[in-house]
Amino acid sequence: MGSTAKERGVQAEESRGARTTIVDVAVAAGVSRQTVSNALNRPHKVAPDTLERVLREVERLRFTPHASAQQLRRQRASAFGFEVNPSGHRRLGHILDEFLVELTVSAPAHASHLLAFAPDPDDVIAGYRQTLASGLVDGFVLADTRHADPRPQWLIEHGVPFVSFGRVWDRPELTRWVDVDGHAGVLGAVRHLAASGYEQIGWLGWPSGSPVGDDRRRGWADGLAELGVTGEAPTAESVQDLDEATGAAERLLDRLGTDAAIVCASDLLALGALRAVRNHGLEPGRDVGVVGFDDTDVAAAMQLTSVHQPVAEAARTAWDLLVDPESTSAPVLLEPTLTVRASSIRETSDADSSAVLDPP
Amino acid sequence: MGSTAKERGVQAEESRGARTTIVDVAVAAGVSRQTVSNALNRPHKVAPDTLERVLREVERLRFTPHASAQQLRRQRASAFGFEVNPSGHRRLGHILDEFLVELTVSAPAHASHLLAFAPDPDDVIAGYRQTLASGLVDGFVLADTRHADPRPQWLIEHGVPFVSFGRVWDRPELTRWVDVDGHAGVLGAVRHLAASGYEQIGWLGWPSGSPVGDDRRRGWADGLAELGVTGEAPTAESVQDLDEATGAAERLLDRLGTDAAIVCASDLLALGALRAVRNHGLEPGRDVGVVGFDDTDVAAAMQLTSVHQPVAEAARTAWDLLVDPESTSAPVLLEPTLTVRASSIRETSDADSSAVLDPP
DNA sequence: CTGAAAGCGCTTACAG
DNA sequence: CTGAAAGCGCTTACAG
């Protein structure tokens, strides 16, 4: 094999099978590799004509810096970890799947990327520690925060940057988070139902104790207070099971009487409400209003009015809080919108047109 | 600031705020850093007692190699890209979200990790090229393959490793893929319905032309042939819209007569079928059998029998095909299972117990 | 404004 | 079997 010529390494940068490096660009532009780096990272430090020449070659050779070399030198991964978990008993909605996608979409705008990782359920913190220690990420995006969540505590103690989608319930003042205002979303739904002519408005929610559920329920209660309703308004509780939700909704309907509507803490509960309405021989929308929460694909399929979370905006905000810590230090609470469909429209005219309505 | 002492860098490795490196381990174990590297990567080349001493220090100091340093030196990212797309008009089911999670769960077993990326929809290939050029990934996991998909072509041309979840329809012989046998899944559903006593079995599917849909439909046709049904069996077509699916299912029911069942190409179509059954004043399961496809959370909520894809197994197989290319070179077709629920049970006895039934 | 030097943390031939 | 040398591709002070 007469490979010595090859080994001299004097081939044109185009013909090599290997990757294009900063040196290839430097040679092509007739400058040192430091100048190429400066042109890319600190353009103001480079003479205008040199800059232009370098950038032209960068373009022509389609040079893309090698990420690991940058990471190693900068001691920064420009990446953040996002915990995922196998579904098993997944909730309806997959809001978190959508959030992951939107985080990924917004990542390049912040010169970052997203690393999915699945920690061992028996030692979640170990998964975070390991991922961080590998240098693959600079910090984390948390989701699915809950009471007594060990993660914020650990991250704060170790000075690890993070942002949370969902309030950090135990110490909301301490940390950066972005959340959707469930209270406002449900309040808007109550106002919409009242304006649509439903007289009685009941609540179908989860057993109290879940911070998210309790927050949404307060939105309903405040909505009733705003309408001047006093005394015992009918409510019902159910876990995430359609049959149980249906039963709870039927009992709720009995207590609500005519001209009633039901606001639900989730689309799955609303599915139970829809079924209960039909079991009573009634028509959702025309006879009984039903509103869900999360605006899942199922809500769209079932013509169910539902509170819509601005997930893409939440993802963009999460990046802002994480990558530009100066920009906003306060927590961010986003306003949901109400996607109105046939299940909350009394007139039959345009019952199958769906529209997005901002809460007043 | 009397920081000169600090600059001498003679502090114990424990007390430094900085990361633990291979040198810290070497010093602690009294060997050179090369030996630590060998102990970790080529243990057979290290004397047993040295090995033990080194590994003990690795453990004690919780040393985790810096990923970018490894990647740079090895010229390998040990990571693979997975394309995600903002939902918009998402299908019911989110099988791909589940696949992403399962890929992430299986990644550590292959000493790899998964990078999510969202290419520009107007130039998907550019997104793949860019992600590859950055050195962040060694290859890709494809999903959602379709006819005239430009990605396999481009990847093959550039010698980029990849595996696909879903057949590479245009050149199945050329590439590595893992898929779920939709034909077998629907065939199993037909057999189950026949065994349950439904006499007429219709098909509710998508307009022909989609390779996935056509494959599933053939499973239904072959099932009928197996049962000795000849002539024109009733079918109906619908796109992914619940109202349209309901209408199509109602017409299908009229043609099927009594003792009928409907096999559907998706859970959403099955939702339409369920609604059509109720619109006819009938009860799903008891009067008309309905089977969906994908076993989504909605199927579980609605007590809908559905064909279940072994997504976790598909993810593990994808890693095998990608990371250990020697292990299996042939495409892999996995058998789905049938999750039986009330919608395909005629007796009312245990109508709400769900069971998983392997196809015969 | 430009380039020579140093170094991020690791692995891989290669001497000893 | 162990360690000294080289180098992956890049960036950042720092001379000139």
UniProtKB/TrEMBL annotation, chains A, B:
Protein name: LacI family DNA-binding transcriptional regulator
Top-rank taxon, per record: Bacteria
SUPFAM superfamilies the UniProt entry points to: lambda repressor-like DNA-binding domains, Periplasmic binding protein-like I
InterPro entries membership: HTH_LacI (IPR000843), LacI/GalR-like_sensor (IPR046335), Lambda_DNA-bd_dom_sf (IPR010982), Peripla_BP_I (IPR028082)
Alphabetic keyword roster: DNA-binding, Transcription, Transcription regulation
Coiled coil: none
Domain HTH lacI-type: 20-74
Gene3D superfamilies registered for this protein in UniProt: 3.40.50.2300, lambda repressor-like DNA-binding domains
Species this chain originates from: Terrabacter terrigena
SMART domains: HTH_LACI
PANTHER family associated with the record: HTH-TYPE TRANSCRIPTIONAL REGULATOR GALS (PTHR30146:SF109), LACI-RELATED TRANSCRIPTIONAL REPRESSOR (PTHR30146)
Gene Ontology MF term list: DNA binding
